[in-house]
Amino acid sequence: MSTLVLELRQGDMMVVNGAPIRFRNRARIELTAKARFLFGKQIMAPEAATTPARRIYFALQTAYIGTEDERAGGLQVARALIGDFQQATTSALVREMLRQALVCAEADDCYQALKLARRVMRHEEEVLGLPPVAATRLPSRAEAEASPMTLTFGLP
Q1: Hey, which residues does 16 pair with through a beta bridge?
Q2: Which keywords does UniProt give here (predicted)?
Q3: Mean pLDDT on 40-57
Q4: Cβ(83)–Cβ(98) under 8 Å?
Q5: Domain coverage including residue 123
Q6: Which of 48, 29, 51, 53 is nearest to 39 (CA)?
Q7: Nearest-5° angle of CA 73, CA 74, CA 79?
Q8: Angle at 139 (CA atoms; ends 5, 21), nearest 5 degrees
Q9: pTM for this model (two decimals)
Q10: Pair (8, 72) in one structural domain
């Protein structure tokens, strides 16, 4: 069985299987079973979903780490937002990344879908001249599934 060891700092946030967790002090945790989780700057707050690409990320995030009731709705919203964005963009690359993100999300590989959505967000930020919503990248699947592994995230 694979395990993932995470080191989180005081004040860091993590969502595991739909449950938000805020760390009151520095902690090292070990996930020993498959779980839907995001942490740190990977988690987008609802008020940060201010652009079309960010709304797609937030919908895919909900489809990934929302409660069981929220996940289906998140995927449905993501489908609609992705369709709208694909029609509005002139970039064939962005349309393809969004198509792949939707395929991944519908196959319950929302982690990969989020990675693709983050790339679309970066493209949108460059085109519109916006500051990045978050500086942290999502670890690769290999990094996330390596056994054992320690990642350190949190505020500098």
Answers
A1: 19, 37
A2: Bacterial flagellum biogenesis, Cell projection, Cilium, Flagellum, Repressor, RNA-binding
A3: 92
A4: no
A5: 46-128
A6: 29
A7: 95
A8: 55
A9: 0.79
A10: no
